[in-house]
Design brief:
Elements lengths: L5 H4 L9 E5 L5 E10 L2 E5 L2 H4 L4 E8 L2 E12 L5 E6 L20 E7 L5 E13 L2 E6 L12 E4 L4 E6 L12 E6 L7 H6 L9 H4 L3 H12 L2 H6 L2 H6 L2 H4 L8 H13 L4 H13 L3 H13 L9
Antiparallel strand pairs: 1-2, 1-4, 2-3, 3-6, 4-5, 5-6, 7-8, 7-10, 8-9, 9-12, 10-11, 11-12
Helix pairs in contact: 5-9, 5-11, 9-10, 10-11
Length: 311
């Protein structure tokens, strides 16, 4: 079964919709990134105070319409692992990241996006190495150095389609040689106030590391949705607008319909009630056509314990 590469899901020349670049009030890049965890809330490294002592910064978001900025202030510094919460002073139309846990897994693929100065961004792919240090996890780069401009950037689990942590501020090799970075996994925040901030993005009652359906298992559902005329005609926009808000809010936006539907299906998979909600919305939109029946049949095969009455 074909699967999408990490850089297909988040193209190398575009920052993820859930990530911002941090600038000082004058617009100078601070070599920091931040992950959107709620409508007005970002998570970044506490090093932001070293680079902007007043605690006032600009968050820059990039999309198909160009860059947009919103002022932000440091709202909280974490007691552990050098993290900080930023509060946006105004809405920035940013999508909260779908988040998950790393768990004890190792050897799986991740990608990270960073941006140096005013230049173009750089996406680096790597793997989570075995073992941990002080609760942090080592990431081994497969392509290039983790140098310079990745601190605070979200670590995207390419199989589960979730952000599982952020890059620690000391990561990167000054020599520019390929090497290792350190990730602050969201697992270590579970018993902290920061963990409470993230809890709204975690699917309730499910461990992403242990129970999420694999990407390869979701592709047949995506293809069956594309065979439904009303879904294919707008790339799933109407479908997304009809899903329950707490599911829809965490769906990263993509310009290509096939990848947008993958993100939508994957987000539904994260919630116990997500598959049933998806089936219900498709039925409302399209009725009981043969294409809908094929989609429902595949959904029932993929989520048998959550769609006993629908498949």
């Amino acid at each position: 079964m074909a699967t999408a590469r990490a850089d297909d899901i988040s193209p190398p020349d575009a920052a993820p919709s859930w990530q911002a670049r941090i600038l000082d009030p004058a617009g100078t890049p601070l070599a920091l990134a931040a992950v959107v965890i709620a409508e007005h809330t970002l998570l970044t490294c506490a090093a932001v105070l070293d680079r902007a002592p007043a605690g006032i910064v600009l968050a820059e978001f990039r999309g198909s319409g160009g860059a947009r900025w919103a002022p932000a202030r440091v709202a909280e510094i974490g007691p552990r692992h050098s993290l900080a919460v930023l509060h946006l002073e105004r809405a920035a139309d940013a999508v909260p990241a779908p988040v998950g846990h790393c768990g004890e897994r190792s050897g799986f693929a991740v990608s990270v996006y960073g941006q140096a100065g005013a230049g173009s961004g750089l996406r680096v792919r790597g793997r989570v190495a075995g073992g941990s240090r002080d609760g942090l996890r080592c990431l081994e780069s497969l392509e290039t150095a983790w140098a310079g401009h990745f601190a605070g950037a979200g670590v995207w689990d390419t199989e589960l389609g979730q952000v599982i942590g952020v890059i620690a501020p000391e990561s990167g090799s000054p020599s520019g040689r390929a090497g290792a970075a350190r990730m602050i996994p969201f697992d270590v925040l579970d018993s902290t106030s920061f963990g409470e901030l993230l809890s709204g993005n975690f699917p309730p009652g499910r461990s992403a590391a242990q129970q999420a359906t694999t990407q390869g298992e979701l592709w047949p559902i995506v293809e069956s949705l594309l065979a439904i005329e009303s879904v294919a005609s707008d790339g799933g926009a109407a479908l997304l607008s009809l899903l329950p808000g707490r599911i829809a809010r965490g769906v990263p936006r993509q310009s290509r319909p096939r990848l947008q539907l993958l993100q939508l299906v994957r987000r539904c998979d994260e919630f116990e009630e997500g598959p049933a909600a998806l089936v219900a919305v498709v039925r409302v939109m399209e009725g009981e056509t043969s294409a809908v029946q094929r989609f429902i049949r595949l959904a029932g095969q993929t989520w048998p314990h959550r769609l006993r009455d629908d498949a």
